[in-house]
Specification:
The complex is a heterodimer of chains A (about 250) and B (about 180).
Chain A: H1 4-14, H2 34-50, H3 55-62, H4 72-79, H5 81-85, H6 98-120, E1 124-125, E2 139-142, E3 145-148, E4 151-152, H7 155-184, H8 186-190, H9 195-204, H10 224-231, H11 236-242, H12 244-253
Antiparallel strand pairs in A: 1-4, 2-3
Chain B: H1 7-14, H2 20-43, H3 46-63, H4 73-96, H5 100-113, H6 122-131, H7 135-145, H8 151-158, H9 162-182
Helix pairs in contact in B: 1-2, 2-3, 2-4, 3-4, 4-8, 5-6, 6-9, 7-9, 8-9
The chains are: A mainly alpha (about 250), B mainly alpha (about 180).
């Protein structure tokens, strides 16, 4: 084991100035009687900690000369004596009897909103106290009033239902239109009927049907003679009944 | 019990519930000054040192029952005290959100603020010089210079090899000398 002399020799080889007399003297001072009282103070702290008293309290009691926490008044007095001198009077006022009425208003409004919401709109139940269960029906008591838990309508949830309903409706309309078009379209319907069936149908009824091959035959121009021939066996009374204007035309054609 | 001097005997008494407190008080009285000065030289301020010293002994009270005697008690105590000091310095840095250099200058300012401070006296210059050292070198220098701790013991306290500690001490002593000569 090295002794002090060896350590001093080592030091004088490295840094001679540090080996001078008095250099190693510690210049710090300590409060008088500090070491005499230390063990007693320490044991008191250990006893208190064993008893479960929080450490900061003990430290404040026994050791540090730290100032204890100031009261709000002392604190503000230190910061601004002006503010400390101002009376903390509330300048605002409420209508007379507001707080008394509030006590009864809050439970009743909770009941009415609960009923309204549960009758009409899908709603989400919110537990007012986390210790309560989140079952479907939660009740709380306030004074003599028993009310349902306040129900809260959630707009986003209603929107989801509305959008889903719209989509279903659009889909239904589209399907309906597609099916209906197949039934009402005469051309598409005829494609499923054979020519023989159509001939049999026409023979059974008193139909006089001449097939029209082109649209040009439907737009043949009538000459004046043709018109005279058409109207020659129609009486004037019948023409007047049809339209007064045609009477003049009849004159011109007959 | 005051005449009992060996740590082994004190530890045996500490493990007995009937003599636990008395044995502990003897241990405290035996080591309090050495540990206090070790802490004080690290932290400068008496109140901080007092706080840390109490915390050290409370840790000792809680852990001494399980202390294995494969190391000397005072080595173990120094280790706890050094760790507590470093933890305290770390906490102070976090609280003040300052860098290590700023923390060291803060400790230097504390030295200069001491009512007995005299910049012409060598012992005060030495304290200022110590605060300029990196943390590890500071601990090594103080354990060796003031506590005259052998390197082997120091290696158990700081969990560093004796060779590395010798190099640290050498560097620290040279830096301190330079500081004293230039200030």
């Amino acid at each position: 084991m090295e002794n002090s002399k060896e350590i001093l020799t080592e030091l004088q080889e490295i840094a001679p100035i540090l080996g001078k007399d008095g250099v190693s003297r510690i210049p710090y001072t300590i409060p008088s009687g500090y070491f005499e009282d230390f063990s007693a103070i320490l044991m008191s702290r250990i006893h208190l900690e064993t008893a479960g008293i929080p450490d900061p309290v003990i430290a404040g009691m026994l050791n540090r000369n730290e100032p204890t926490e100031l009261s709000p008044l002392e604190e503000i007095s230190g910061i601004s004596p002006l503010l400390a001198g101002i009376q903390k009077k509330n300048p605002y006022q409420v209508p007379a009897g507001y707080f008394e009425a509030l006590k009864t208003k809050i439970p009743s409004s909770a009941v009415s909103s609960s009923i309204d919401a549960s009758e009409n709109i899908p709603s989400k139940r919110v537990a007012l106290d986390s210790s309560l269960s989140t079952s479907d029906s939660i009740h709380f008591q306030q004074g003599s009033i028993t009310s349902q838990v306040k129900t809260v309508f959630t707009f986003s949830r209603a929107m989801k239902y509305a959008v889903a309903a719209c989509l279903v409706g659009l889909l239904g309309i589209t399907i309906y239109n597609m099916n209906n078009r197949n039934v009402t379209d005469p051309i598409s319907g005829l494609t499923t009927v054979s020519e023989q069936d159509m001939a049999n149908f026409l023979d059974a009824g008193d139909f006089h049907w001449t097939p029209v091959t082109t649209s040009e035959t439907a737009s043949v121009d009538f000459s004046d003679n043709d018109i005279h021939a058409l109207f020659s066996n129609v009486s004037d009374a019948e023409l007047e009944q049809y339209h007064p204007v045609l009477l003049a035309e009849k004159g011109s054609v007959n | 019990m005051a005449e009992l001097t060996t740590d082994t005997e004190l530890l045996a008494l500490f493990r007995e519930p009937a003599t636990k407190e008395k044995a502990f008080t003897v241990i405290v009285k035996k080591y309090q000054e050495r540990l206090y000065w070790h802490i004080r030289r690290m932290l400068v301020d008496h109140e901080d040192s007092n706080d840390v010293l109490q915390n050290v002994f409370i840790r000792v009270w809680n852990a001494l029952g399980g202390f294995r005697e494969d190391a000397q008690l005072y080595t173990w105590l120094y280790r706890i005290a050094t760790n507590e000091c470093l933890t305290f310095i770390e906490q102070q840095k976090k609280k003040a959100a300052v860098s290590l250099n700023e923390m060291e200058s803060g400790l230097s300012n504390k030295i200069r603020a001491d009512k007995d401070f005299d910049s012409n006296k060598l012992e005060w210059k030495l304290q200022l010089a110590i605060q300029q050292l990196p943390e590890k070198q500071r601990v090594v220098f103080m354990l060796r210079y003031y506590d005259e701790m052998p390197y082997e013991e120091m290696s158990r306290v700081l969990e560093t090899s004796a060779g590395a500690l010798k190099a640290s001490y050498h560097h620290a002593a040279k830096k301190i000398e330079d500081f004293i000569l230039n200030h």
